[in-house]
UniProtKB/TrEMBL annotation:
GO terms for biological process: regulation of DNA-templated transcription. Residues 33-230 form the LysR substrate-binding domain. It comes from the Bacteria. It comes from Mailhella massiliensis. It holds the Pfam family LysR_substrate. This is LysR family transcriptional regulator substrate-binding protein. GO terms for cellular component: cytosol. InterPro entries: HTH-type_LysR_regulators, LysR_subst-bd.
Length: 245
């Protein structure tokens, strides 16, 4: 099936190439990605420049959850995905975009006992937000297993299924959460109400990847854009958040 889909995609790209000019890109590029990646200013600036320079290319950009992005890539809706994944799926090619540390996010004016580098016993005494995933299961973080978090979480105070809501309730002063730093940067409107404590001494960094389906030949426009995205992220060094905003 993979090879059959690839054959039809190749014919489609051939038709686009024949109908277009040799010296300009054309056709469609589909991207499905996580908001922490596609919501960054540097990404939107790159994509806007790419579209100005290639007016015959139509870009479809979809912000979605990782499982939805994988399905888009699998079915050919998206040429590639820009997402964080806990493990590399076997049916996809994955190229590392960037890594980002996990942080403990707490209300700025809190009365919790938290050291600059939080101790496990301090985390165990905190009220946490639980995330609800696509499968309706509750987890402290979509990217960390219960084994990785063993001894690092406290009591569950509430359950939410959306990052912005999580930050809104943390800002109100009642709960804490474990979140990757890149996701936290996506919502700067909450930063003045929050404080972030590093957890790199307890948890490994989260990895974001550019994913494509194996056996798929991308069109010239998709190849060019994906290479520009990789170059952009490789040239950027992640800025570290200070313990307090």
């Amino acid at each position: 099936l993979d090879w059959t889909i690839t054959a039809f995609e190749l014919i489609g790209e051939l038709e686009k190439s024949i109908s277009g000019s040799y010296d300009e890109l054309n056709g469609k590029v589909g991207i499905s990605g996580s908001l922490p990646i596609i919501g960054q200013d540097m990404f939107s600036s790159l994509l806007s420049r790419f579209m100005r320079e290639n007016p015959k290319v139509h870009v479809t950009l979809r912000a979605c959850r990782p499982l939805e992005a994988l399905d888009d890539i699998e079915t050919g809706v998206a040429d590639f995905g820009l997402i964080a994944i806990a493990q590399k799926p076997e049916r996809f090619n994955a190229t590392l975009l960037c890594t980002t540390p996990f942080v403990l996010v707490a209300p700025k004016k809190h009365r919790f006992q938290i050291s600059p580098a939080p101790l496990p016993e301090e985390l165990q005494n905190l009220p946490f937000v639980m995330y609800m995933g696509n499968d309706k299961k509750e987890v402290y973080s979509p990217w960390l297993t219960s084994e990785q978090l063993k001894g690092l979480t406290g009591k569950t105070a509430m359950t939410l299924n959306q990052y912005q809501l999580v930050l809104q309730y943390i800002a109100k002063g009642s709960v804490c959460a474990i979140m990757d730093e890149l996701t936290l940067k996506t919502f700067p409107e909450y930063h003045r109400h929050l404080v972030a404590y590093p957890l790199s001494h307890l948890l490994e960094d989260l990895q974001y990847f550019l994913l494509t389906r194996r056996h798929r030949r991308l069109g010239a426009a998709a190849v060019t854009l994906s290479q520009e995205i990789l170059t952009l992220f490789r040239s950027q060094k992640e800025k570290k958040l200070t313990p307090a905003y």
